[in-house]
Amino acid sequence: MQQDIRNILLIQLGDIGDVVLSLPCVRALRENFQQANVIVVVREKAKELIEDCPWATGVVSVNKDKRSFIQEIDYQKNFFLKLRRYHFDMAIDLRTGTRGAILAMLSGARQRIGFYAWDGKLWRNRLFTHLYLPETKPGDYVADRYLDLLVAHNIKTDHRWPEIEIPLEKQQKINALFTNKKIPPDRPAIAIQPFSLWKYKEWGMDKYIQLITWLISEYNVSVLITGSLDERERATEIIKKCRQSTYNLAGETSIGTLAAVFKACSLFIGADSAGVHIAAAVGIPTVSIFGPSSSFDWAPRGKEHHVVHKALPCVPCNQKGCQGGGFSRCLEELTVDEVMAVVKHQIKYSGLETYERSVEKN
Asked: Which residue from 207, 250, 327, 349 lies 20 to 30 Å from 56 (Cα-Cα)?
């Protein structure tokens, strides 16, 4: 079978975090089909991650820009014409929605692999030639779930955790950004991402201000606030209430250069968001603050990664806040002291405590 596969389509239409957790699948395809082209379909906002991925041959992005009816027809026609030019032999959809299933079908691939969807019996499941029904259990890491689809079809890899390699060009861009921002090159940096795409996953700006003030006072570090352009104003509010050595990088980077920012840091602290997945994938320790979502499914694996969540019997509820109301009691009641305790452990692990002591001696 492998000798006949020349062009492979991997479909991941989830958010940025889902794309990061799918990188082991890209690597598995490269390792098992070394001569094949591996093309990955993602949303536009995650495109750069695949452009920088050494195991992918190319990327096709889907955007949801507002278009007129005629423009939409033209966009869809051109999109599928572009897809068909690759003459795919195999298409793999990593999700259970309908969009990916349609893409797999219209790609023209003779082998179409996907997850069995319980709500897809009428027509969605029939678009695939090979279906996999996983024995999903609570606590299964999402990256493993994606990879299990490939393993079920004898596509294996020993590299099960997401990894991101930073191109030299991105490293140079970040070096220039740090110089422009006057971020001291001789002082360790901690990246903090207080924001999430979903407000019910956020711990609270006032608590982050307390945490940042403590970090700078105790450990003599630079704190880099990261986030999107839409979050820049809120990042500015945090910095105004903190001491010096706090820098606003929200909206200053693309998703690819954000990975390079994290690589230049000694520790990541932040909300349950794409940031923690990217930080873990570039190889730095993380402290992720979880609320209603399941950290067992989503938090990075390994002894260098720690999770903080409130010990309530309802956690995780996997709802959009309490009773779906957008407010998360588990995050509201999570104290700064509880987060500090975990951060102290990680600072010791990452070596920042040793740095702070050496500064005191000097």
From this structure: 250
